[in-house]
């Protein structure tokens, strides 16, 4: 029987999803051949990297709860001893398999909120719960492992390491965290093939276009098969055609069951999501539902 995670499991690392990665045993199986995410416009998306969307009936289901919960969160920065509030009483739930856009003008606190959801920063007040795990109850080491395995980040500026090849960039996160039983080198190659970069694997970022760089970043974000993709203005540095290709990749990954939270200031881009949450001056205005 598979092990499911509860908050209590965190104190017993040997019995934790963070250690065993039992949800991801399919990664040991065959990856698809002859398909890729980029050129499948006319064909159905058939990526075997899909997540198992539904829990087995004999498991204690935590997946019925939201995959992301932001509860009464406040975030302030302290500048010269003065508190500068950035986020005020944020409450947000994201269900597993959702494609959510967080939209708001520049300076509204979108990146701050994404960093909190991605455990890159801790809230001043309130709780962030990912897959039932409360960041406030985790050690820094547990937070790092949860982030490394369950969250894939995609940034506006791609954030690739210039001196590493595309393949090395995709493999890089696995040096810190990886799932047991996965051949990360083969998986990195397969992901690059899936995003249409088979022939660019050994190129460095300086030899890649913006769209190619963002596709490398998407492959990197997927390397540990995270439950959640967090994308902060992922098309902000791309022309609209290339941006559209990137959004289509997100759409297909989401159709395949992966939860996506995308930040944007652009209503057209937010329109790709299933649900839009509006953020203004650090306050959620509405969730369009
Ligand atoms: N590390 C920081 N220290 C102080 N202020 C910050 C920091 N990061 C962001 N801010 C401020 O918080 C506000 C929200 O920033 P941000 O979350 O980046 O907004 P957005 O992504 O919506 O443009 C801005 O006024 C910004 O200047
Ligand atoms: Mg931002």
From TrEMBL:
<dbReference type="InterPro" id="IPR027417">
    <property type="entry name" value="P-loop_NTPase"/>
</dbReference>
<dbReference type="GO" id="GO:0005524">
    <property type="term" value="F:ATP binding"/>
</dbReference>
<dbReference type="InterPro" id="IPR015854">
    <property type="entry name" value="ABC_transpr_LolD-like"/>
</dbReference>
<dbReference type="Pfam" id="PF00005">
    <property type="entry name" value="ABC_tran"/>
</dbReference>
<keyword id="KW-0067">ATP-binding</keyword>
<dbReference type="GO" id="GO:0022857">
    <property type="term" value="F:transmembrane transporter activity"/>
</dbReference>
<dbReference type="GO" id="GO:0005886">
    <property type="term" value="C:plasma membrane"/>
</dbReference>
<dbReference type="GO" id="GO:0016887">
    <property type="term" value="F:ATP hydrolysis activity"/>
</dbReference>
<protein>
    <submittedName>
        <fullName>ABC transporter ATP-binding protein</fullName>
    </submittedName>
</protein>
<feature type="domain" description="ABC transporter">
    <location>
        <begin position="68"/>
        <end position="289"/>
    </location>
</feature>
<dbReference type="GO" id="GO:0098796">
    <property type="term" value="C:membrane protein complex"/>
</dbReference>
<dbReference type="InterPro" id="IPR003439">
    <property type="entry name" value="ABC_transporter-like_ATP-bd"/>
</dbReference>
<keyword id="KW-0813">Transport</keyword>
<feature type="compositionally biased region" description="Polar residues">
    <location>
        <begin position="1"/>
        <end position="24"/>
    </location>
</feature>
<keyword id="KW-0547">Nucleotide-binding</keyword>
<dbReference type="InterPro" id="IPR017911">
    <property type="entry name" value="MacB-like_ATP-bd"/>
</dbReference>
<feature type="region of interest" description="Disordered">
    <location>
        <begin position="1"/>
        <end position="38"/>
    </location>
</feature>
<dbReference type="InterPro" id="IPR003593">
    <property type="entry name" value="AAA+_ATPase"/>
</dbReference>
<dbReference type="InterPro" id="IPR017871">
    <property type="entry name" value="ABC_transporter-like_CS"/>
</dbReference>
